[in-house]
Amino acid sequence: MNNTKWRECISLLASHCVYLQLRLVGEADFPLDYEVSNEVISQIQAKDCVFVRRVIAYKSITALRIIKTDLPPSARALQTDIMSKLKQALSQLGQLPLTEDSEFITINGYYLQSN
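User: That's the sequence. What structure does it adopt?
Assistant: Structure tokens below.
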């Protein structure tokens, strides 16, 4: 995905109270930890943002995963409503390389070719 789409996605997620994970170029899988989006995303710029006090270039993001099965305590009562609104807002950003299963909404940046 290009910088503009990542910036739009990151900005949208920063305004919601959801858990998420980033997988960066060179990482085999998502990290075990997940973070509360509205608490750890800041300084959203044209080419990068700050995620958990670390500057992340959009071009280094291979995927972003939103955890559907758990929400921070302050948002648990509204879990279904939050996920519904979030999916609607993401769809308004245009066609995204998005997959969804019972646990996660995953936005992919780079597609890896299988051998």
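DSSP finds three helices and eight strands in the chain.
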